[in-house]
Amino acid sequence: MARSWHEVFKGVDESSGDAAGVTARTQEEEKKGFFGRLKAGMSKSRKSMQQHLSVVMFDRLDAELWENLEETLIFADCGVKSTVAIVDRMEKAAGEGEIRNREQFYSHLEQALVDMFADGDYQIDVSHKPSVILMVGVNGTGKTTTIGKIAWHLQREGKSVVMAAADTFRAAAIEQLSEWGERAGCPVIKQERGSDPAAVVYDAISAGRSRGTDVIIVDTAGRLHTQVNLMEELKKIRRVIGKQIPGAPHETLLTVDATTGQNGLTQARLFGDSVGVTGVVLTKLDGTAKGGIAVAISHELGLPIKLIGVGEQMEDLRPFDAGDFARALFED
Ligand SMILES: Nc1nc2c(ncn2[C@@H]2O[C@H](COP(=O)(O)OP(=O)(O)OP(=O)(O)O)[C@@H](O)[C@H]2O)c(=O)[nH]1
Ligand SMILES: [Mg+2]
Q: Residue 274 C-alpha to ligand 2 middle, in angstroms?
């Protein structure tokens, strides 16, 4: 079953925050509730899978079946590498007599899918004092809203947060982050529109340090005049952070919009090469029938997906769990 928010943060004290008062039973209920939302959010992907596989005759394990499975996974955007690996594994299992009916087919498929997700640290490291989380990603993918939600959860877990409005490209971006700051109850360090993002980050770290803040979260621009400019700006921000706090940023999270499909994979590759991404936040899974993109991103880039978004509400951003993801994709 899914991890709770308490479990997703590395460095959150067991006895601090609201989580200390949350009973195991409430945590269980929270997880069940999320699975329902996850299933609802992934209904487009699930329906598409079911439609593709509905023609399959599970008592005839022939070439047609494997072709059909292959097409289904490719259509779902699982990517060629993962698709080939999954189909090979399924054929092998069938050859060994492990797949004889519908149930066995789906349980093997679920497990094969789960195993495609990269190993890696699925937690978000906030164990340093202060810890710095840098949020990067193309415009509109969900950076600012994700920061707001993470900040809200961190405060609830007893961690103090300062946010840095380093997307100085648009005035609206600074306002949007400020609103999230109010909602989450944490200060937002900002300057005028058009000011140097690295200077904002410098201020935020100084402010965070003097206040004894636990976590500093940095919002960045998703679009500048050119992509080269953007990567150079992000590199500069990283250098400024690293100079003030050796070893930081401790997390560089990349937001990817699931509805952009293979294009999201290309973006992830670019950011990964330029700014050293430690994990992916995959947003808008509710808006696509091609939820398999999660598999492609994780498997082909070797990156853990740390959080997923299945809607715009606060509760729709959740810790990622590969097992739940696979179940939500196939199970009625
Ligand atoms: N349906 C859906 N919408 C989402 C999800 N996550 C974020 N959004 C919406 O996507 C829109 C863009 O989110 P932002 O957080 O502003 O994106 P951003 O990356 O900061 O964008 P820029 O500041 O322009 O670079 C908002 O309207 C969010 O509510 C999700 O999981 N599902
Ligand atoms: Mg933004």
A: 20
Report d(CA 39, CA 45) in Å as an integer: 10
- The answer to the question of residue 283 being in a domain is yes
Range of the domain at 157: 124-321
Per-residue pLDDT tens digits for 104-121: 999 999 999 999 999 888
Name the band, by pLDDT with cuts 50, 70 and 90, for residue 244. very high
Cβ of 257 below 6 Å from ligand 1: no
* pTM of the predicted model over 0.85: yes
Across the chain, mean pLDDT equals 91
Q: Tell me which residue has its CA closest to atom 3 in ligand 1.
A: 312
Ligand number nearest CA of 254 is 1
Handedness of CA 260, 266, 269, 270 (dihedral sign): negative
CA dihedral sign of residues 314, 319, 324, 330: positive
CA dist 14 → 152, 158, 204 (Å): 18, 10, 28
For residue 184, the domain's CATH number is: 3.40.50.300
130 falls within a domain: yes
* Structural domains of the chain, count: 1
The verdict on residue 77 lying in a domain is no
> Is the CB of 309 inside a 6 Å radius of any atom of ligand 1?
yes
24 found inside a domain: no
Question: Is 312 close to ligand 1, i.e. is its CB under 6 Å away?
Answer: yes
Q: For residue 224, what pLDDT is reported?
A: 75
